[in-house]
Amino acid sequence: MEKLKAGGETSAYCTSCKDMRHHVVVAMSGDVPAKVECLSCHKQHKFKAGPPGTKAAKVAKISSGGSAVKTKSARPAAGSVPAFSGPNPLEAILASRGTSSARSYSPAERYAIGELVSHPSFGIGAVTATPSPGKMSVLFRDTTRLLLHERAPAVVAPVAKLAPPPRREDIPTGPADRPPKVKPIL
Ligand SMILES: [Zn+2]
Asked: Measured in angstroms, how far is the CA atom of residue 59 from the centroid of ligand 1?
């Protein structure tokens, strides 16, 4: 937007024409016209950006900011996550250990510090900390995330081993009980 100055033209509300008109800026007050002259009726009056009662009438100058709110989006949610600078240490870990030892992530599983976790969305990460029970910090390629683990439903202490009901596949199908063909694993 071109900066206004005295002598310049601007669209403003004319208090005489009672309409939006082109005006010549007579005097400035900072960045905002203070006094303008209507090009239709040639009356001088105080600058009004819009008709009375509209938003434009009150907000003569729209702030040019607008994007100041979006500054903390890149921060990881966890508070205790050490910020790393330079190359991501995960790369070094993966380079030395490979990705084959990574366990696929499941909140029900328990992971230990130093373990590699393969997450369906975030990829492979390394467990760097277990800040609180059931939570772990995992260093991914882009950032560190706080993930849940050990979230298995409380396992009931193994009650006296009752004979489990036979699974359907185990029930003999008949007198001619054929043993399943098992391929020998070499
Ligand atoms: Zn006018």
From this structure: 21
Q: How far apart are CA 113 and CA 116, in angstroms?
A: 9
Q: What is the pLDDT of residues 22-36, one digit of tens each?
A: 999 999 988 889 999
Q: How far is the CA of 58 from the centre of ligand 1 (A)?
A: 19
Q: How far is the CA of 26 from the centre of ligand 1 (A)?
A: 14
Among 169, 171, 97, smallest CA distance to 127 is for: 97
168 domain-assigned: no
66 within a domain of the structure (yes/no): no
Nearest CA-CA partner of 119 in 136, 141, 104: 104
Cα-to-centroid distance, 17 and ligand 1 (Å): 4
Say how many Å lie between the CA of residue 30 and the centre of ligand 1.
Answer: 23
Give the domain range for residue 38: 9-57
> What DSSP character marks residue 41?
T
Domain-located, residue 159 = no
pLDDT one-digit tens code per residue, 90-149: 888 888 888 888 999 999 999 999 999 999 999 999 999 999 989 999 999 989 999 999
Position 78 in a domain: no
